[in-house]
Structure formats: structure tokens, C-alpha cells
Amino acid sequence: MQINQSNIFPIMGDWLVSENSIKLDFSNQNADLLKLDMQSTQNFNDYVFGFLEQKEKKYGHGGYLENRMIYQRSTHFQQGESRCMHLGVDVWCEAFHPLYAPLDAKVHSFADNNNFGDYGPTIILEHELNNEKFYTLYGHLSRASLENLAIGDHIKKGRKFSELGPFPENGDWPPHLHFQLISDIKDLKGDFPGVCAPSELEQFKLLCPDPNVFIIGDS
């Protein structure tokens, strides 16, 4: 899947660059996480936004194909082989931050995946570029983002279509966007795995290409 960034409107309204953002590490290489009670969303939130305030950044980002320990906080990821490989990119930012359509789109599906540690309110958009169909997924939204939304609605590139949700309605996470690029959504609606087991990684890498071209600016 070849996508030129010059064709894309920045989802956050800004391209994330070094001046406004910093990469966050949620792997087991981050010793700070070992001291953090991640069952407490408030504690987790204080850690994320305290770090951003200390670094004087508006956004935190990262996570594509990161082996993450933070999913140990929820049984949602611990059924069968533990799922810990992150298939999207996260943008950590204050709740109610607006999100904009990166390309012309139509609403493929949406749902409130209302489990602890899940996506919470989720929207999946369908796009077609150079005769190629693909999908973008937006998780951890506000419940208001799902109001007055209908499958098949057309959304023009650059139009605000949703916003980040607060916890607990966003799946009970510190406010952030889970953004994922999907080449083949199969028959799923309103949901798609955003984390996989290590044994599944190679097949999911084919379905979920690197989405950073939609988030990270060139400079």
C-alpha cells in the first residue's frame, strides 16, 4: 500500500513533529512502568500527562509493533496466548481533542466496545485511493462521536468527524487515539484486533501496515 503524505490531511489537525510531540515507550524496557499501578487509570493518566507536561509537549506518540506490557492491566488481552504486540499507533492527548478525516471517506462501521481496556467508542472509515480500498480505525473516542452517525455517511477530507474520549468511557485509558491502517477488514464491523499475540504478528503485519505516514510529519 503506497500512500503519499502530501495527499493526507493530518488527523490531529497538526502533524506530529519534534517541536510538539515526543515518543512514549510502553514496552517492558520502560522501568517506570514496573513501579506504576496500571489497574488505576487515574495513576496511569497522571504518569502519561505528567511526562508530557515535564517535556513541554502537546502530544505523545508511538507504539507500532511495540511489545507492550501495559496490556497486562486487562483480562481482555489475556485470553489464550497473551496479546501484547501493538498493531496501530497511539497519540496521547487531552480528551475531546478533535479528529479530522485524513482522506475522503465513508463510514464503514462503528461500535462502543465497552470493556475495560478495550477500544471504547470506535469508528472505522473506508477509503479508496488509486483504485485500492483500505480502512482506517479510530479507537478510544467519546461516546458523543457515535451520535448522529450512520453507516455509509460520506466524510470529506479535512472534516472533523470525532473526538478523543475521557476515561472511563474510552475503554478506561488515559485519553489517546488508537489509529490503525487496515488493508483487509474481513467481515468485521466496528472492531478489529489492535493487539495480537507474538505468534500472529507476521500475518497481522500484512493486514495492518505502518500507519505513521498519517500521523508523523516530515520535519
UniProtKB/TrEMBL annotation:
Listed InterPro entries: Cell_wall_metabolism_enzyme, Dup_hybrid_motif, M23ase_b-sheet_dom
Record-linked Pfam families: Peptidase_M23 (PF01551)
Domain M23ase beta-sheet core: 85-183
GO molecular function: metalloendopeptidase activity
Name used for this protein in its record: Peptidoglycan DD-metalloendopeptidase family protein
Species whose genome carries this gene: Marivirga salinarum
